[in-house]
Amino acid sequence: MSVSSDHSQGRGNEPAASRTRAPFGTREAAAAVLTATVALYIALVAFGNITDFDTNRQFVRHVLAMDTTFRDEDLMWRAITSRAWQDAAYVAIIVWETAAALVLIAATWLWLRRDSRRARTVSSAGLLMLLLLFGAGFIAIGGEWFAMWQSEKWNGLEAATRVVLLSGVALLTVHTTDRR
């Protein structure tokens, strides 16, 4: 890679690294593939939730209502039984999933353009969105606050853990591409 003569003489406003494309090595390829994989997965999840709205709406309703848990009196005050609030939560989940998918698709495009700096930033944003939704939302709030772990039928902890694991590995891989 060549550096412009303006920068080498100290006259450029931008550092040389921002004016040249970083080499696309195996780390960048791994980050691109993982970002694309997560983007595809979450796009299909969001698409499924939109086109088969009722299936996962029932999941969200049962988790929030806590109607398949042990029904411990000390916990049941946490239940949300309003269908309007349950449906609002489900729509918010779909919107968040869709937004994360779009961010990760944009990140994949940036990886393919070999714009590693911006790709890393955008990938991180999308992957953190998923870690918040599936880690904080499903595992912490759904699993613990709404005692989803107690339900034999409406327990999404395993699926949420898969997304957290995949997103976490992708995030770590994305950040190993930083050659600074």
Automatic annotation (TrEMBL):
Name of a matching Pfam family: DUF2165
Record field: transmembrane: 29-50, 88-112, 124-147
Domain of life, per lineage: Bacteria
Cross-referenced InterPro entries: DUF2165_transmembrane
Keywords recorded for this protein, A-Z: Membrane, Transmembrane, Transmembrane helix
Sequence ranges of Polar residues compositional bias: 1-11
Chain intervals for the UniProt region annotation (Disordered): 1-22
Protein name listed in UniProt: DUF2165 domain-containing protein
